[in-house]
């Protein structure tokens, strides 16, 4: 039975971290909200689950994954569930929790990226909080990008199995998520990230290696890969970008 991924149509957003894992593993999955209503798919199918009247396991928000009757919400939770099944996480339970900690740190980073363009309220348009967004983005570029990427660079450098992967000696879902973070930051803040290769050589090498993986390379060239746009998490507003000191 195919996995069912539920996420907003038309954006990469948080759902992309799950898509990358499924695509790398060559897993059978349906991106439900992008499918036709005639097949019981599309956005109404997602809302039908979220608005359920009797279920105890209602997801608060997408993305969420269905595996048979099981519903798993939240990116890090989904990836922790999928990781062993897809060969993208160690079998040892303790090591999986370490890996999950790295993914949760990415979750924190993604939340801060979102707040660069919506620092006041998600219910308001970007244009209604542009001045606050400029201040938040400046702080993010100056302090938070170096804080987060410096941490992941250090973890890569100190990996006893080598710096090719963030954990252990084989590809994990966190490697794929770091690829997406790297891609997203370069899209949203091209000036601020112009010198990532010099500042974070291990992250840059990881990004290049993931991009060359056969399944990922095919996915990136397919119409399944939604382009970055200004409705997702990583948004490019030139007025928010600046050169990094």
Automatic annotation (TrEMBL):
Presence of keyword tRNA processing: no
GO MF term list: glutathione transferase activity
Domain GST C-terminal: from-to ranges: 92-240
Protein's GO biological process: glutathione metabolic process
PROSITE patterns in the cross-refs: GST_CTER, GST_NTER
A Pfam family hit: GST_C_3
Species of origin: Rhizobium hainanense
UniProt keyword list: Transferase
InterPro entries named among the record's database cross-references: Glutathione-S-Trfase_C-like, Glutathione-S-Trfase_C_sf, Glutathione_S-Trfase_N, GST_C, GST_superfamily, Thioredoxin-like_sf
UniProt xrefs under CDD domains: GST_C_Sigma_like
Protein name according to UniProt: Glutathione S-transferase
Source organism superkingdom: Bacteria
Occurrences of domain GST N-terminal (ranges): 1-90
TM helices/strands, residue ranges: none
């Amino acid at each position: 039975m195919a996995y069912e991924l539920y996420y907003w149509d038309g954006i990469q957003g948080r759902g992309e971290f799950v898509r990358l894992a499924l695509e790398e593993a060559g897993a059978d999955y349906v991106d439900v909200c992008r499918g036709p209503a005639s097949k019981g798919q599309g956005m109404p199918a997602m809302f039908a689950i979220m608005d359920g009247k009797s279920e105890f396991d209602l997801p608060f928000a997408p993305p969420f994954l269905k595996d048979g009757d099981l519903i798993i919400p939240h990116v890090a939770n989904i990836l922790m569930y999928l990781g062993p099944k897809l060969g993208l996480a160690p079998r040892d339970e303790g090591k999986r929790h370490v890996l999950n900690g790295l993914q949760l740190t990415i979750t924190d980073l993604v939340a801060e990226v979102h707040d660069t363009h919506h620092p006041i309220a998600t219910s308001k348009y970007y244009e209604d909080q542009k001045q606050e967004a400029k201040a938040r983005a400046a702080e993010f570029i100056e302090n938070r990008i170096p804080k987060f990427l410096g941490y992941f660079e250090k973890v890569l450098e100190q990996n006893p199995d080598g710096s090719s992967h963030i954990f252990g000696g084989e590809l994990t879902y966190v490697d794929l998520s770091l690829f997406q973070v790297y891609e997203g930051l370069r899209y949203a803040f091209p000036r601020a990230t112009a010198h990532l290769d010099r500042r974070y050589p291990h992250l840059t090498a990881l990004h290049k290696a993931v991009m060359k993986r056969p399944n990922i390379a095919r996915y990136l060239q397919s119409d399944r890969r939604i382009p970055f746009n200004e409705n997702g998490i990583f948004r490019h507003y030139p007025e928010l970008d600046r050169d990094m000191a």
